Each structure stands twice: as structure tokens, then as C-alpha cells.
Amino acid sequence: MNTIDKAKLATHYDVVIVGGGQAGLCVSHYLKQANIHHVVLEKEAELTHAWRSKRWDNFTLVTPNWQCLLPDYPYAGAEPDGFMKKNEIVEYLDGFIEKLNPPAILGINVTHVAKVGKQQFVIETDQGTTLAKHLVVAAGGYHTPIYPKLSSSLPENVMVIHSEQYFNPEQIPEGNVLVVGSGQSGAQIAEDLHLAGKKVYLSTGDAPRCARFYRGKDVVKWLFEMGYYETTVKDHRYNEEVRNSTNHYVTGRDGGRDIDLRKFALEGMRLFGRFKDYKDGKLIFSPDLAKNLDRADETYNRINASIDNYLLQNNIQTDASASVYEAVWQPESEVTEIDLVAENIRSIIWCIGFRPDYSCFDLDIFDKKGYPQHNRGVTIDPDVTFIGLPWLHTWGSGRFLDVAKDAEFIATHITQQIKYFNKAMNSISPT
């Protein structure tokens, strides 16, 4: 656990950063360089809490270590093309925190934020109230775990947890386990349980997948060289909607490999379509398993084809030839109902995401869905910025790759706003 000098909440700051994850800390780094008076408010007892307490034991990065580019603190280990494990990620973050020594207050909960004038925010906490000229929301967008509404109550002897509560197979009771959701977390948790010998039932969704390695190189490396990570929201074919997209499932475990749900099915995992309901002892699924698997494989092959085209256009030679993934398993039929007791399902893990909760921010900057309206993190109120959200600006945003770039941009914006405000105040002050 990181240690931070205990500090009391001051009466005012130039900038208050809400959230002590890597995104908020990166903003703090650049504000310190600019000599901007600021504080990081973190509700948990430690910085970068989610990496420590909301990841399963066998968690690894999905992107290679060389993409870990926190400001003035790039990955410097012996395996740049490897994938850090949970404990290694924590060690990397602790090194950054120690070097940064951010002005942070831990265990403080922000309860209400309102703007009462130009560049004047009133920030109420459970440890008092402070004022700020600028607000940075670095609390991420994964706040409230999503649980589906069910027609019937699940039996009391069935353990029900969310993905953020899963740590290892040992915590799962005897019997079979249903994992709902096949995004990155769902697919990797299903694999973790499967490799441990648990009988896994997996309810799939529309998550895409990609190869880990192709044509002799990590697919991430190819996509980086092709400029994909520099794609901005405005340049993307889905525009703003891309912010709601599901990440491709793949893994960095054991040096990195594909996640092939069809292969898991051959090995005994039971696959189903999208989860719909639990009613009268029955788990009910949509008849879309084949479509979900086919769509994921289409994305897999499309990404590989784009790499083939890139190599051809740039006359790049590799030892590995082009290939197309062919399905190793097909569902014989679409099973849409199973009996919970008959299948001996004794635990369910919901891996269907989170909802953002910005309810404490009493600010007119959110759309009808409660999402901040912003351009590259700068909201429609230029005194409020966000950082750490997926696709904040590019595909690399929200990752270790581009969080420093986003933070530098936001810190520069804040510095300019404060300078303009101070200059304006000085020009109208009596001599």
C-alpha cells in the first residue's frame, strides 16, 4: 500500500482533482510542474485503489508493457513485450506515486459539488468544505455495478457476485458457475475458472475479439504502427458512439494468447446466447449464440486482414503468412433455457459492466444519459475537465498509453484558464 503524508483539507485551491487513480495522478504531475496549487481527493484509503482491490488474482494487462507511459515514468522492466501481472502493475504504480509524491488526501468522500460564480466551485466532503477555481473529475466511469432485473429471486444457496468482487476460483463454492458477459472481464474470468477445472457456463454478448499475435508480432504492436491508437473520436466511423463500445477480448496471461470461446466449448465449457432472465427456476437466454460467436470471429479476421493490407502496402516482409480463422466448433442448437438446480449452478458472476454515477456533481455539464459533454476532456464549462474515460480523445485514452498525453493537455488548459482569470481580475482591481 502506498503511503501519503496526512494533510487536512485547505480552505481553497486553484484545482481540486477528484479521484486518485493513474489519470488523476498524471494531471497532478503536470500541475506540480506548472506550480499550480492543487489537491487530489481520493475516497479510498489508498491511491490507484481499483488496481489493488478490484482485479482478480491472475489479472494481467491486455496491452504490452511498453505501452505503460506514465509521465516521466515509462516501463523500464526486463519484458517490454510482456504483460504485467496484478502485483507488477501495483509495483509500477507505487514507483510512480513515490516519485510524484502528490498532494493527496485519502479516505475523503466528495458529497456535493456546485459552482457559485466564475471559477468558483464549492466542494463539500465528509471532512469539510473547500473552494476551487477549477475541477478535474478523475473518478473514471465505472462506478455502479450493473445487475439485471430478474423475474424471480435466485435461491439463497446460489452465490451471486459482480466481476469486481471476483478474485480467484477458490472463493467459488462447489458446483458449476455461470459467468454472464463475454467482454474482457467476462471472457478472462471464464478462462480463469475453466483453467482451474471448474465447470463454466458462459452467457455471451456482442463483444468483439482479436488475435494476440499475428504475422510474427503482437497485434497491438501492428495496430500501434498503423496509427490506430491515434484515432480520435471525431475521426472514428462511429463518432461519439464509439465511447460506448465494448473492448475486444484477448489476454496477456502466460505471455499472451487468443481467447477462443469455441475452443473452450470443445474442452467442456457450456456456451449460451445473451442472458435474458431467471424465472421459475429457469435461466433464460436469447437464441443468438451462433451470431455472437460469428460476429466476434468476423472482427478477429477483419483486424488481421487490415494488418495484411498494411504489410502489403508498405512492402513489409514477415516470416509468418496471412491466415484466416476458421471456427473449430459450432453450436448444434440454440439452447435458450436451462434449469438452475438440474445443472448444479451454485454461483453466478455478473460481468455486464458498470454505470457511471456523477450524482454528487451538481453541474450543468451532463447529457440526458448522465454522461459529461466534453471535447478532449474539456466540458461545456471550461472550468470542469474529465480524464480517464474510454475514448476521452483517442483509442489510447483511458489506457496507460495515452493517459499522460490527455493529462498534459488538460493541465495546459487549466493553467491557461487560471492565468486568464487572474489577469482579468488584476485588470479590474483598484490601484
Automatic annotation (TrEMBL):
What InterPro entries does this protein's entry cite? Auxin_biosynth/cation_transpt, CHP04046_FMN-dependent, FAD/NAD-bd_sf
Q: Record's PANTHER family?
A: FLAVIN-BINDING MONOOXYGENASE-LIKE PROTEIN (AFU_ORTHOLOGUE AFUA_4G09220), FLAVIN-CONTAINING MONOOXYGENASE
What are the GO MF terms of this UniProt record?
flavin adenine dinucleotide binding; monooxygenase activity
Span-the-membrane segments of this chain are none
Pfam families in the record, alphabetically?
Pyr_redox_3
Q: Which UniProt keywords apply?
A: Oxidoreductase
Write down what this protein is called: Putative flavoprotein involved in K+ transport
